[in-house]
Amino acid sequence: MALASWIDLIMCFLLFLLLIYIVATVTITKLHKVYLGFHFSMLIWPYCQFAIRTVDDPLYQLFYVKLAFVDASLLGLGWIFFTILLAGQSQFLNRKIVSALVIPAVLTSLGVVLNPYGWFVRPVNGGYVERIYGPIFWISMTFLVINALVSMYVIYVALTSNQAARVKNQVMYMLKGITALCVFLMIDVLLNVILDDYLPVIPGFTSLGIVVSATFFVITIHQDKVFDIVTIAHQDIINTMEYGILVLDDQEQVVEINHALHPYIPLVTGAAFNMSSYLPDDPAMKIESFLEKYHEHPLETAELEILHPLIQMVVSIHAAPIMVSGSRVGRIVTFQNVTEIRRLIDETNQQNAILKERNDSLVKVQEELFQTNGKLRKLAITDSLTGCYNRHYLMQQLEQEALRVSDTRTPSTIILIDIDFFKKINDQHGHLAGDMVLCNTVELLQRSLRPSDILARYGGEEFIIYLPDTNGAEARRLAKQLKSEVEHNTIHIDYIDEPVSITISMGLLSIAEFKIPPAIEANTYLNDLFKSADKALYAAKHQGRNQIVAAEV
């Protein structure tokens, strides 16, 4: 076999060695996987060129020719996308640009595979070791040139932007790689396609260009650590920290584990990490919610503090994403032993709890005393049946109101109310029904009164309303409203078939100036007022009940 047949295989072998070097010397991440796929596609071209010259069957030769040029289309796309990723120009990865690049490559590859009418390639002397290229070949070459120009434009944008010097350095290596590949590709096309009739075939130019470009990539990866997440995690620093640090890639594979964590989590670089397997199965520790956030929301920080039963330590776990250019490329998980801190906090909390318990006991005693006093005060001033104020409270309030010094004349009104024929209700339906009528009537009256008004039980079925700052006309309007509401109200009692309705008689006393005259005791003054109101009430009952009669002082 001629030496020329082995040139492309040698190039393939060199590319394979570079691939092994990358795998052996750098941490495998998602971006590495993209590059390794790209690098593997670079192996296909020289291997196909070697295979074309070593097989005798024209069908196999044609297969390797087609495979090589389909691979060339993929390489062109790979150059662009890899350039975009390494240059940090993700704005080019929108749907329109991706479609404009992928669709022509797919159509060209389809034309290469179908080779209609020999428009891609035709055999010479019955085989494809020597071949004649058609228009689809030139279309494919055109798209490769376009891909190279697009890659150079992306590099130009990266070099003219505000990128870090480190990024621009690696972009320059990419430019050198693309330039080398383009130069060797054009030499190959010129010598072995355009001048094919005048010169003998010189193999290996394109394969050599691929090797040179791949070498520039390897130099970039090795010197600038373009994929190395460990540089982001500051390896030299994390090994000196007392708490454990675990650096993961976006596929949950270990990128780095510091010395403090090794005794507790026996992992090595490149191993898969499963957070669930290192946590105890205890629902009381809220582990499920932590794992849900850890797995379902990787862009958010997840925190957990547990008492780990295996190592008998209180461990604080903190998981945070590693972001580069707005994308998550991994995660940092820290494990901190907070046993002593938790012990001190628990002791402090226990002391605080004891003090709080004592304070709560004192507060509880105070509240009970306050509530008891409130109940006693309420019992002292309210009627036990209806819940409204009693006569004693009314007298106290009126005495204070009458003794209040005021520069202005403020009218007030007293309304004395009596339930008509109340004794008849007790006689016909019993005292329990009478009590219900009293309570229902009080509730009805309260709804129409102001907060400053006072409704009190005067005695038996009689009630008294004190209306401060209210003249006679206003009081009469209110009295009419109350009388109408009571008259139209129906009281339903469980053991009585028909609802009970009542009416009320009202004695209204309007006081122009509610003030105790000199030389008169407050109790005497108020009793005189009540007598006047009682006379008006008597007159209302004498006139047929369900009436309002006003008296003047």
UniProtKB/TrEMBL annotation:
<feature type="transmembrane region" description="Helical">
    <location>
        <begin position="64"/>
        <end position="86"/>
    </location>
</feature>
<feature type="transmembrane region" description="Helical">
    <location>
        <begin position="98"/>
        <end position="120"/>
    </location>
</feature>
<feature type="transmembrane region" description="Helical">
    <location>
        <begin position="171"/>
        <end position="195"/>
    </location>
</feature>
<dbReference type="Pfam" id="PF16927">
    <property type="entry name" value="HisKA_7TM"/>
</dbReference>
<dbReference type="InterPro" id="IPR000160">
    <property type="entry name" value="GGDEF_dom"/>
</dbReference>
<keyword id="KW-0812">Transmembrane</keyword>
<protein>
    <submittedName>
        <fullName>Diguanylate cyclase (GGDEF)-like protein</fullName>
    </submittedName>
</protein>
<dbReference type="InterPro" id="IPR031621">
    <property type="entry name" value="HisKA_7TM"/>
</dbReference>
<keyword id="KW-0472">Membrane</keyword>
<feature type="transmembrane region" description="Helical">
    <location>
        <begin position="201"/>
        <end position="221"/>
    </location>
</feature>
<feature type="transmembrane region" description="Helical">
    <location>
        <begin position="6"/>
        <end position="27"/>
    </location>
</feature>
<feature type="coiled-coil region">
    <location>
        <begin position="338"/>
        <end position="365"/>
    </location>
</feature>
<keyword id="KW-0175">Coiled coil</keyword>
<feature type="transmembrane region" description="Helical">
    <location>
        <begin position="132"/>
        <end position="159"/>
    </location>
</feature>
<dbReference type="Pfam" id="PF00990">
    <property type="entry name" value="GGDEF"/>
</dbReference>
<dbReference type="InterPro" id="IPR029787">
    <property type="entry name" value="Nucleotide_cyclase"/>
</dbReference>
<feature type="transmembrane region" description="Helical">
    <location>
        <begin position="34"/>
        <end position="52"/>
    </location>
</feature>
<dbReference type="InterPro" id="IPR050469">
    <property type="entry name" value="Diguanylate_Cyclase"/>
</dbReference>
<keyword id="KW-1133">Transmembrane helix</keyword>
<dbReference type="InterPro" id="IPR043128">
    <property type="entry name" value="Rev_trsase/Diguanyl_cyclase"/>
</dbReference>
<feature type="domain" description="GGDEF">
    <location>
        <begin position="410"/>
        <end position="553"/>
    </location>
</feature>
